[in-house]
Task: structure prediction
Amino acid sequence: MSADHPLHLNAEGLGKRHGRQWVLRGIHLEIKAGSVMAILGSNGSGKSSLLRMLCGFDAPSEGTLLWTAENLPLQRNGLPGHIAYCAPDQSLILDLTVSEHIEAHGRLRQMLDSADLSSVLELAMLSKRADARVRDLSSGMRQRLALSLAFCTDASAIFLDEPVSHLDRDGRKWYSQLLDEWRLGRTLIVASNHNAEEYPKTAERFELGS
Result:
């Protein structure tokens, strides 16, 4: 299981440019296997761009990234099978029902042994909405579904971008419990606009734009 082999990341001289504009430059960052890292910055600081590079979605414009799991190097094109990702702009398949979406995710990704359809529905507090179309869910319900799928995926690392977006007070309490019970020792990287509810108190912090 990937969850048994948390991801280690090492970034050296990392930079990202859009056209002639540098979003980030000179990032040196090590994230140890099984640790929790909070990437903190205000809007426009580049934290989402950094997160997307760290999880292999976007290539850096300069610098190097090294990913290892169980002391074995991972290539960027093979990284998606080792990670789980959740962001506010993440696209869910709106025409599927909640159950269909969970089942489709399970066909595309290896799930944790404890994560069957009923347990994911229960975790996301959507058992009573199992047959509802995803498009008919509230934004908070969609966020709970996306977060539940991320944590129930058999992944070496979990990447979250502003995870309490769209969650009300009860939803934020639910998210805190999700962190406690479902991280399972995996590497966790959270991009946050300095919202302490989004990452554990024990997390290492990497400040952007300071």
User: Anything to note?
Assistant: Residues 156 and 193 are 24 Å apart (CA to CA). The longest strand covers residues 7-18. The first helix runs from residue 47 to 54. The chain has one domain: 2-207.
